[in-house]
Design brief:
Layout lengths: L4 E4 L5 E4 L9 E6 L4 E11 L7 E4 L3 E6 L2 E8 L2 E7 L4 E9 L8 E8 L2 E9 L7 E10 L4 E11 L1 H5 L5 E10 L6 E6 L2 H8 L13 H10 L2 E6 L2 E6 L2 E2 L5 E2 H7 L1 H6 L2 H13 L10 E2 L9 H18 L3 H4 L2 H20 L31 E2 H21 L7 H16 E2 L2 E2 L2 E3 L2 E3 L5 H8 L6 H15 E2 L3 E2 L26 E2 H15 L4 H17 L9 E2 L11 E2 H13 L4
Antiparallel strand pairs: 1-2, 2-3, 3-4, 4-9, 5-6, 6-7, 7-8, 8-15, 9-14, 10-11, 11-12, 12-15, 13-14, 16-17, 18-30, 19-20, 21-24, 22-23, 24-25, 26-27, 28-29
Helix pairs in contact: 3-16, 4-7, 4-16, 6-7, 7-10, 9-10, 10-11, 10-12, 12-14, 14-15, 14-16
């Protein structure tokens, strides 16, 4: 994979380009808010006669790419892509108009005209090649091109990253025009009407100048690329996309975990806005949806992460005497009401035998199964217990803050769950992954780091030290990460297996877990675990700066070696890296 430029317009769209046939998900994508869908227009912008070898320089908001004697600059903002190029005699524009997952290549018609100072590209999509039924029309307006040549041919591309993932990799794209750049900005504007496209292309944009030096700044920028404000059915919706290009939705678990980024960076109002949207969406049992727009998957921990993040935000605000600045008493009482409903509901679903919380199949963050349908992590899972204990602590904290009468003994609920978790899951100096069908699941996974992160007081320091060491022996990877399952487990896979999910939670190393693990090890004993902390930090930073989407944090890596795999811009990977770097004092 070459160095791939990645920019977000902060309103749902993105631009990715690496100078080669990288992925069908490269190019310029616009967010259709009412449909909650990404729409692709440009596949490639390529100066003629220049090799694929390039140097990429990242700024906060734009990219510069140097190839031989050609210098290109890219900036993307709200349906408008700004392109500046020096030293190129000719640039070829290739198009691939379609919704991001629409692979129907029939009935695609492009028309190119010149109107005053604009090149107008009209795209009509018909149901089939008979051109009898028109489905939609979209437009791309280009300002800054005085002279162009209509190329007008279709070329086949076979994208390497898509082939690696075993997804559809062969596509036909339309080489539309070649043009000679002039010494000013070339601006591309998209619209469902010609007027909208021209309006977006008419914007005069000054490229920001802000050299990013610190890795914390780059990680913060990576997360901000996924902190979006989208227009959906005449309403502005603010939130955190789980990842681009594929996870352009608000996933409850991902969004709540990712809130540590804006909380750590001091973007309290953004965090508060997301929190109140999520609180308003809690159901009658106080439970949070898995995803919005909705999916069939359920989540056992989204609600738990939500309350943990609210607790963390309130502690930060209280420390700085700013709670009243961001939360009214009415808002806090609304949160407390929903919280007490959830706690009351939780007491009704405890296992009769273990008095632990039991989740169904594929309801934890490890929400896939192996090819035989066995590895689903149903039962009482370790991080669910720890997160629930933390929620009981938060309930007591908020009760005291609001001076509410004790309707339910939150501390007794907490202490009982601590005792039961230790009784059933802590055996032989190890905190095991779960308890299912009256049997202890002795599978070793890095989820114990989430348990520590959620509630460090669950075990004593020497007990956690033993747990961490055993997990390192079983799951640690020498390049600086953790395999998602014990390397001796028969389900373990060294190489990422793509969309079949065989390696997804059975070998692949997830950057958000690695970052959390390093944060926890640093808090527990930064001397004993110094080597692992340094290697994890270096691996996450290296991936962010030199692999995949440059300046973004990928979802995961193969266990075998450090690489960018999965979704190449993942919110919780960036957010937990921000937290880790600040934990290590890299402000």
């Amino acid at each position: 994979m070459k160095e791939c430029i990645f920019l977000s317009d902060k309103s749902g769209g993105y631009f990715a380009l690496d100078g080669s046939e990288f992925s069908s998900y490269q190019g310029l994508f616009h967010f259709l808010g009412d449909e909650w869908e990404l729409y692709k227009t440009i596949d490639d912008l390529k100066p003629v006669g220049v090799s694929d070898q390039s140097q990429v320089f990242m700024q906060d908001g734009f990219f510069e790419r140097n190839t031989a004697h050609v210098i290109e600059k890219f900036f993307y903002s709200k349906h408008t892509l700004v392109y500046e190029v020096e030293g190129a005699k000719e640039v070829v524009l290739s198009l691939d108009f379609r919704r991001i997952h629409d692979f129907n290549d029939k009935g695609r018609i492009y028309s190119i005209t010149k109107e005053k100072d604009m090149v107008i590209i009209e795209y009509k999509k018909y149901e089939d090649d008979s051109l009898a039924v028109l489905k939609e029309t979209k437009y791309l307006a280009i300002k800054g091109v005085l002279k162009y040549t209509h190329v007008g041919d279709w070329i086949k591309k076979d994208y390497e990253y898509d082939k690696l993932r075993a997804s559809k990799s062969d596509f036909y794209v339309y080489r539309a025009i070649s043009f000679t750049p002039i010494n000013e900005q070339i601006v591309f504007g998209f619209g469902s009407t010609k007027r909208d496209a021209i309006t977006h292309a008419s914007r005069k944009v000054e490229l920001p100048i802000n050299n990013m030096i610190l890795n914390t700044e780059i990680a913060s920028s990576a997360l901000r690329n996924l902190m979006v404000d989208v227009r959906h059915k005449d309403k502005d919706v603010m939130g955190v996309f789980a990842g681009l290009p594929w996870f352009y939705q608000f996933w409850g678990r991902d969004e709540c975990i990712s809130l540590i980024g804006p909380i750590t960076d001091g973007h309290y109002m953004f965090a508060k806005h997301v929190i109140m949207r999520l609180v308003a969406s809690l159901d009658s049992n106080g439970c949070l949806h898995n995803r919005w727009p909705e999916s069939e998957l359920k989540s056992a921990d989204s609600t738990l992460w939500l309350f943990k993040r609210i607790h963390q935000l309130l502690i930060v605000l209280e420390k700085n005497s700013r709670t009243k600045e961001f939360f009214s008493k009415r808002e806090l009482e609304n949160i407390y009401e929903k919280l007490t409903i959830y706690v009351g509901h939780s007491q009704k679903i405890l296992s009769a035998y273990t008095r632990l919380f039991v989740n169904g199949p594929k309801e934890t963050w490890m929400d896939t199964t192996d090819k035989d349908g066995r590895d689903t992590r149903s039962g009482a899972r370790v991080e669910i217990q720890a997160l629930t204990i933390a929620v009981y602590d938060f309930a007591e904290y908020l009760r005291n803050l609001l001076k509410k009468e004790k309707a339910l003994d939150f501390l007794k609920c907490r202490d009982d769950l601590i005792d039961n978790t230790r009784r059933f899951l802590f055996r032989d100096s190890m905190l095991w992954d779960g308890y299912e069908n009256e049997h202890l699941d002795r599978t070793i996974r890095p989820n114990i780091f989430i348990a520590y992160y959620a509630y460090p007081s669950l075990l004593f320091k020497e007990e956690w030290t033993s747990v961490f060491k055993k997990t390192i022996d079983a799951c640690y990877l020498d390049w600086g990460g953790f395999a998602s399952i014990d390397k001796s487990n028969p389900l373990f896979r060294w190489e990422h297996t793509g969309i079949n999910n065989e390696s997804y939670h059975r070998g692949d190393s997830w950057f958000f877990i690695n970052n959390i693990a390093a944060t926890c090890m640093h808090q527990l004993d930064d001397i004993t675990f110094l080597e692992q902390i340094k290697k994890i930090r270096n691996a996450s930073v290296c991936e962010m700066n030199t692999m995949g989407f440059i300046g973004a944090c990928a979802e995961l890596s193969s266990a075998k070696e450090l690489c960018s795999r999965g979704c190449l811009a993942q919110a919780w990977s960036a957010a937990t890296l921000i937290e880790l770097l600040r934990e290590l004092g890299e402000d």
